[in-house]
Write a structure and sequence with these properties.
globular, Rossmann fold, eight-stranded mixed β-sheet, alpha/beta
Length: 218
């Protein structure tokens, strides 16, 4: 069984841990405050989960999930993630993270920054444009009418395959935005962001996306 190393135990990280353990996956979860602060969450999650440091979560992971504030992405340990698929749920909130000029100018993407920090990993955008509670409440079986779709993007087909299988298992169709340089189409304030949409609607919203957000170009 695949072990997921989740680095970040906020709303998305915690909810993904719930979803994954409920499907029988092992989860090693870390936050910035230390494993002891995750005792209640791990107790809730049961025997398939344990708390650890970020380094330990990265080492244990068959697939890693990075779900930390963007300002903290450079603290993610790169060495133990080499060769691994890394799911990036991060979003750019300049109010929280401070302005990052290359993002404001549309010269970079959130997941592209993480890929540059983890040059030997296989980064894929995932779970960034869905509210945390919806991860465990809005999935439906394959073939359901108007099944909700979630997007991904990666430079690695095998990473997109991992996301596609996971989305399907949790009850969602998958639409790929393409390579990681196109992952901006799934980012904050774009038409595809935090909207309940089926695959056809998601494809349309991805196509309508704008790389530079109004007011950001300076």
């Amino acid at each position: 069984m695949t072990t997921f190393g989740i680095i970040g135990a906020g709303h998305i990280g915690s909810q993904l841990a719930r979803a994954l353990t409920s499907h029988g996956y092992d989860v090693v979860i870390a936050n910035s405050r230390g494993p002891e602060t995750l005792a209640d969450l791990v107790g809730e999650l049961g025997p398939h989960a344990r708390a650890a440091t970020a380094q330990e979560a990265a080492e244990a992971a068959d697939v890693a999930v990075v779900t930390v504030p963007l300002r903290a992405y450079t603290a993610i340990p790169a060495g133990p993630l080499a060769g691994k698929v890394v799911l990036d749920t991060n979003n750019y909130y300049w109010e929280r993270d401070g302005h990052i000029p290359e993002l404001d100018r549309g010269e970079a993407t959130v997941s592209g920054l993480l890929q540059a920090h983890l040059p030997d990993a296989k980064v894929a955008k995932a779970f960034n444009h869905i509210m945390a509670a919806d991860i465990t409440t809005t999935g439906t079986p394959a073939g359901s009418p108007h099944r909700r779709a979630l997007g991904t993007a990666s430079d690695f087909p095998e990473a997109i395959d991992v996301v596609t299988r996971l989305y399907d298992e949790l009850g969602f169709d998958t639409v790929s935005a393409g390579a990681l340089d196109e992952s901006w189409r799934l980012e904050r304030d774009r038409p595809a962001y935090v909207v309940r949409q089926n695959a056809e609607e998601l494809r349309a919203n991805l196509a309508k996306g704008f790389r530079v957000r109004p007011g950001d170009a300076g």
